[in-house]
Amino acid sequence: MTHAAATARVPPGPKGHWLLGNLPERRSDPLTLFQRGRERYGDVVRYPMGPLLMYQLSHPDDVKRVLVDNAQNYQKTALMQRLRPVLGEGLLLSEGDFWKRQRRLAQPAFHRERMEGIATLITRLVEESLPRWDALAARGEPFDLCAELMRLVLSITGQVLFSTDLSGAANDMARAVTTVLEELNQRVLSALPLPSLLPLPGHLRLRSAIRVLDRIVYGIIDGRHRRTDASGDLLSMLMAARDADTGEGMSDRQLRDEVMTLVLAGHETTANALAWTFLLLHQHPEAARRLVEEVTSVVGERTPTFQDLPRLRYTARVFDESMRLYPPAWLISRVALADDVLGGYTLPRGSIVVMLPYVIHRHPAFWERPDSFDPDRFLPERAGTRPRFAWLPFGAGQRMCIGSGLALLEGQLCLAMLARRYRFQLVPEHPVVPQALVTLRPRFGLRVIAWRREPGDVPGEVLDGAGPERSDARP
């Protein structure tokens, strides 16, 4: 298609409300809005969102153009910048040369050669948490599996990235993070956001939550200033960095922004991915049986090691398939700095484009039986037939999640160790509803009862009980 022909065409899409467009649906049920949009209108969909126009891209070729081939034409949207009160100039929101510098400084902390040592640290921390999980199982009382996974992953994040024990801050951080996600979601979706200085209830809740997070994060930084040993973790690398021109190091505010971004991104997404994985294993007991049998066969009763991971192939495929169906980073947004042609349409400068892994991962042109849970679709011989950008739980291109390798390592080890040791039963009638905020999480958590597996148990369901409830619920 020629550029002129593309210019003459306007992408199809739902009209929505005469004034608000599709903003009410975007606020109330974005997963249904965007999934049905692709099903009804195709791979480029136009949505009026109040005073703005938004374009949804669902073809891997268009995703590749925005995130890789023409990435210099796209930057983070003004909507994403509304997260700045929490994340500041951290890696998620910073742009240009400053982002490149910060990314370059942080990258060594995630290099592959560090992964073996990190794996040992992860398994040690999981083992240290087992008495708490055992006590929950012994009591036989319901608890929120999501909250316990958040606690575990937060402790891992604190030690791996900052050599700091954050377990004591888990409850405060969990409440603050939930408040932040909910309030920032309201800001991002507001057609006319009110000034943050107004003493409105939502603004006050957000400020209070940020103060809690700041206290925790600045406590990490202050503690490191008082230490004389060099731990070699991410925080020590950031604190030792010096500007090539001025020789100055990062201010505490710069350190705060990077630590805040990595703490929130590092524990929220991985914990949610694990929660969705246990839910999917409940719905598919044969997959649960295969996973437990694999872990038992490869590892037995000993602690898994980094060297075991290549043989825990099915465990890895289960985690990959879980992130296909429920990607914690469910939406990627950019704004076009100049006109561009995508999917045969010219999108003008200033256009907001959104790419939804949640929708792309369910595209029937690239995924056979896309709504089904099938870990074996990630076998090499099957995965090799799909476009590279049909699966992007960590984004893609130069701004791909810096911690993707760590997240996969952590997720697979935690999954193997917990699934081998426990069965979980979902409390009857407990609603399981996806909530698409900044991340994709179970709105009401996962209320479960746990049982210890004993050596020699026949592998069974990892999570027993009812499944998700939504008008268009997909397994």
UniProtKB/TrEMBL annotation:
Its cofactor is heme. GO terms for molecular function: heme binding; iron ion binding; monooxygenase activity; oxidoreductase activity, acting on paired donors, with incorporation or reduction of molecular oxygen. Gene3D superfamilies: Cytochrome P450. It comes from Cystobacter fuscus (strain ATCC 25194 / DSM 2262 / NBRC 100088 / M29). PROSITE patterns: CYTOCHROME_P450. It comes from the Bacteria. Keywords: Heme, Iron, Metal-binding, Monooxygenase, Oxidoreductase. Belongs to the cytochrome P450 family. Pfam families: p450. This is Cytochrome P450. Heme binds at C401. InterPro entries: Cyt_P450, Cyt_P450_CS, Cyt_P450_E_grp-I, Cyt_P450_sf, Cytochrome_P450_Monoox.
